[in-house]
Amino acid sequence: MSIQWYPGHMAKARRALAKAFPSQDVIIEVLDARMPYASSNPVVTALRLHKPCIKILSKADLADPDVTKTWIQHLSTSEAQASASPVGRVVAVPSSVERFAEIKKRIPELCRKLTGRSGANSRSIRAMVVGIPNVGKSTLVNLLLGRKVANVRNEPAVTKTEQLVTLDGGILLSDNPGLLWPDISEEATGLGLAFAGAISEAALDYESVARFGAELLLVRYPTLVMARYRLKELPSSGEALLMAIGQHRGCLRKDGVIDMHKASDVLIHEFRNGAIGRISLETPEHRLKSNENAATEIVHD
Ligand SMILES: Nc1nc2c(ncn2[C@@H]2O[C@H](COP(=O)(O)OP(=O)(O)OP(=O)(O)O)[C@@H](O)[C@H]2O)c(=O)[nH]1
Ligand SMILES: [Mg+2]
């Protein structure tokens, strides 16, 4: 499946990003802690080049804490590595509701450290908050500012235009519309983004997204799934899990057949709000492996 979802405002946002990047000192890329690789926009990586970057792993309260730790190590580069690395200096930081006080202090400090500017000099620092839709960019901007200036809602494409704010200490921060890339060609990436809520529901086949999520959960978190839906044995497929959820929750059509759309809705929403448990959809190891497999397939072709 190739998700072609690139509405007009996103094409405009991409052009704005390309124009604004050169004048920025720090890029703050907000990723989804449950899938930092799938939520990392290749357009941002390509435009950022060597500019210092803070990668915020947002919604870490919903992700598996051990997996988040491995992502933080995997994504961060030391000063020594940065000079030799094509991605430059990256500091990855987990963000979640319970860490908000720490984040409010740490991000301005990191902006000063990464740019080497402190005191009055830090007044001129420009930092740009970017990332996929619905990942928590505006929440972060409001948090850093200490009051609500940006609209926050649990749906993609809430922020439509760039919004500039000045933090205490003078850092100029910009909030931006969520950005996807024109052709999400890797199936697992598109379905993962959809499962987590970054792609508008109107652009998806809801049941395929739920089946994809169900299969992943069965492999990665069978115990959580069995406990949540009070299952005695593990369903043999994503489809079977959705049927079991439908049965457990009484999602039935008038003719008594399980309503797969409703069952899909239950799974998707309970994953998104953390009711099933703290779940990470990908680990650095599994991503590295799937990249190796893709490379091998290309060689064999
Ligand atoms: N659980 C949890 N939810 C969060 C966190 N940060 C943001 N959210 C929620 O995620 C949803 C989207 O937040 P926004 O800040 O509007 O996301 P955005 O990236 O600005 O979205 P767009 O402007 O649509 O691109 C809201 O329901 C927030 O409350 C977090 O750390 N943990
Ligand atoms: Mg926003």
Layout of secondary structure:
Elements: H1 8-20, E1 26-32, H2 42-48, E2 53-58, H3 65-75, H4 79-84, E3 90-94, H5 100-115, E4 126-131, H6 137-145, E5 163-166, E6 172-175, H7 187-196, H8 206-220, H9 222-228, H10 238-249, H11 260-272, H12 284-300
Parallel strand pairs: 1-2, 1-4, 2-3, 4-6
Antiparallel strand pairs: 5-6
Bound molecules: guanosine-5'-triphosphate and magnesium ion.
User: For the report, how would you describe the main beta sheet?
Assistant: 6 strands, mixed
Helix content: 40-55%
Order of helices and strands: HEHEHHEHEHEEHHHHHH
CATH architecture grouping of the largest domain: 3-Layer(aba) Sandwich
The total of helices stands at: 12
Strand order of the largest sheet: 3-2-1-4-6-5
The whole-number mean of residue pLDDT values reads: 89
Low-confidence parts lasting 5 or more residues at pLDDT below 50?
A: 295-301
Count of distinct strands: 6
Shape: elongated
Write down the Rg: 20 Å
In CATH terms, what is the fold-level topology of the largest domain? Answer: Rossmann fold
Tell me the name of the CATH homologous superfamily of the largest domain: P-loop containing nucleotide triphosphate hydrolases
Estimate the strand proportion: 5-15%
Estimated structural class: alpha/beta
Compute the separation of the termini in Å: 20 Å
- CATH class label of the largest domain: Alpha Beta
